[in-house]
Specification:
Elements lengths: L2 H15 L29 E12 L2 E9 L9 E7 L6 E7 L6 E9 L15 E8 L1 H5 L5 E8 L7 E2 L16 E8 L4 E8 L2 E7 L6 E6 L9 E11 L6 E10 L8 E9 L4 E3 L1 H10 L11 E5 L11 E5 L19 E2 L6 E7 L5 E7 L11 E3 L2 E8 L4 H4 L1 E9 L6 E7 L5 E7 L4 E5 L15 E5 L6 E9 L2 E6 L4 E6 L8 E20 L7
Parallel strand pairs: 1-19
Antiparallel strand pairs: 1-2, 2-3, 3-4, 5-6, 6-7, 7-8, 9-10, 10-11, 11-12, 13-14, 14-15, 15-16, 17-18, 18-20, 20-21, 22-32, 23-32, 24-29, 24-32, 25-26, 25-32, 26-27, 27-28, 29-30, 30-31
Bound molecules: beta-D-fructofuranose.
């Protein structure tokens, strides 16, 4: 038996001892015949996936670990699944990286390159990769004890295999802290220290460490600030250069469930400063919060628990994020989990570049756009010239190209009560609509008639988002992949991500203008090939 096999067996024995149901780690074969399986977004080979974890770039390879239940298509005892890519488009599945052990199951966390071997795990000069994750001990929870603590694992073979630290757990909660999870760590060079952001119920706490093993509390942020309709999860703190300036601000990305702007899970963000000890809100950003309410990274209902890659190469100009393209409101009921259609559940968003911009009120606003490597899949694009749209206009894409495409269009911002947008439809009458409404200055994503919607009363919805930009041209980019539509409006100033389950692939793409007319400035629709796996 291999070492890995023996370790898995030992881990399972430990789980049984702890009263957690052991799950078979055997994987069913990957099935690609499911028409809902995305062609160019990441999905697990089989079974259940939620949050992205351990995003780290090392030696030309992007690592994507993820919350994984290899024993079924619903959430269960969590492992870290693993995949690698050199371009964030073509992914290669790797063996499960972390399995439950005597301390609990493996919840979300992060990974970094320990360039200076501060942890001392390396003995030959190769920097170790370090992963830090939350242990969840269900038996402790049932006994009324705090169930969550942080554990550490290291890899000396570039992320392929992981060894858990013998001194785990490395960080325990105080009594009475049931939610104490999702550590995201980065190296803070000015303080020569590791910094961890950790979600603790209704706020985030920061911890510091010189060696990744011993952690001390620094400060807390967020109680009473921003949205609080649910528990805070999966924080990420990162510096971002303000576009067009030499200034850098710190952005705290903060998932929350429930309590999103359109229901269920969503991610808010805060802009401020970080001095190695505390995160403080930028005063103009704080005024904007007070006036307009929480700032949402994505107003759609299917982007959650997103975090950014660590250790991007020095030339990288933007942080790159990826999120779980699902929502805890209905995540374990989406129809791909039914064996008749597929044996996988949940996709990731397409990776996105983040940028930070000054906003009109003197504050700051995040924007995000798909990373450009989708272009490696591009087929012959279709372009349309400027034209007046009134009613509907067909976009001349080949039928089979509609469901896998990237479409960018620009309209003159209409006036009056005009609505402009796109619709995707199929021969069965399923229709998805996305539009901008000049009267309310809002975007809407309507999936009420998009296909199969009855698996949860919370799924069918029309979701809304404000237009945050003010230019006279409205640009919209749609990343369409069989069962998802990611809408990036005004170059990513307002983003909406929506999952759909059409009964047959969408084959028709139309533009529309209703209750008035609007001038299309340009349109470019690019069919995308599937990104082959493994
Ligand atoms: C977010 C989350 C995390 C947790 C993980 C468990 O979706 O609830 O807070 O670590 O999922 O799978």
């Amino acid at each position: 038996m291999t070492r890995r096999g023996r370790r898995a067996l030992l881990a399972m024995a430990a789980l049984v001892t702890h009263g957690v149901q052991a799950q078979t780690p055997a994987q069913p074969a990957r099935r690609d015949d499911d028409p809902w399986r995305p062609a160019w977004h990441f999905t697990p080979p089989a079974h259940w996936m939620n949050d992205p974890n351990g995003l780290v770039f090392y030696r030309g390879v992007y690592h994507l670990f993820y919350q994984y239940h290899p024993g079924g298509t619903v959430w269960g005892p969590m492992h870290w699944g693993h995949a690698v890519s050199s371009d964030l488009v073509h992914w290669h599945d790797r063996p499960i990286a972390l399995a439950p052990d005597e301390h609990g199951t493996i919840f979300s966390g992060s990974a970094v390159v320990d360039w200076h071997n501060t942890s001392g795990f390396s003995h030959d000069g190769t920097p170790p990769l370090l992963a830090i994750f939350t242990y969840h001990d269900e038996a402790a929870r049932k006994a009324g004890l705090p169930p969550q603590s942080q554990g550490l694992a290291y890899s000396l073979d570039a992320g392929e295999t992981w060894t858990k630290y013998a001194g785990n757990p490395v960080l325990r909660p105080d009594a009475g802290q049931p939610d104490f999870r999702d550590p995201k760590v980065f190296w803070f060079a000015p303080g020569q220290s590791w910094i961890m952001a950790l979600a603790v119920g209704d706020h985030t706490e920061f911890f510091g460490s010189p060696d990744f093993r011993q952690w001390h509390r620094l400060s807390g942020f967020g109680a009473g600030v921003g949205a609080h309709g649910g528990v805070w999860e999966c924080p990420d703190l990162m510096p971002i250069r303000v576009a067009g300036t030499r200034q850098t601000k710190w952005v705290l990305i903060q998932s929350i469930n429930p309590g999103g702007p359109n229901g269920g899970s969503a991610t808010q963000y805060f802009v401020g400063d970080f001095d190695g000890h505390s995160f403080t809100l930028d005063p103009a950003f704080a005024r904007g919060l007070a006036r307009h309410g929480p700032r949402w990274l994505d107003w759609g209902r299917d982007n959650y628990a997103g975090v950014a890659w660590s250790d991007l190469p020095p030339g990288a100009r933007h942080p790159i994020m990826i999120g779980w393209m699902n929502n805890w409101d209905y995540g374990d009921k989406t129809p791909t989990g039914a064996l008749s259609t597929g044996n996988w559940r949940s996709a990731m968003t397409f990776p996105r570049e983040l940028s930070l911009h000054r906003s009109r009120d003197g504050g700051y606003a995040l924007r995000q756009m798909p990373v450009r490597t989708w272009q490696t899949l591009a087929g012959p694009a279709v372009a349309m010239r400027a034209t007046m749209v009134s009613g509907t206009v067909e976009v001349p894409l080949p039928d089979q190209a509609v469901a896998q495409s990237l479409v960018t269009l620009a309209f003159d911002v209409p006036g009056g009560r005009t609505r402009v947008g796109i619709e995707l439809s199929n021969s069965l009458g399923d229709i998805y609509r996305f539009h901008y409404d000049a009267a309310t200055r809002r975007f809407s994503s309507d999936r009420t008639a998009s296909g199969v919607v009855d698996f949860s009363p919370k799924f069918a919805s029309v979701d809304h988002a404000p237009r945050l930009a003010s230019g006279k041209t409205l640009t919209m980019t749609f990343a369409i992949d069989r069962s998802s539509i990611e809408a990036f409006c005004d170059r990513g100033a307002t983003v909406m991500t929506t999952a759909v389950f059409p009964r047959a692939p969408y084959t028709r793409l139309r533009l529309f203008a209703e209750q008035g007319h609007a001038r299309l400035v340009s349109l470019r629709a690019t069919p995308l090939a599937g990104a082959a796996r493994n």
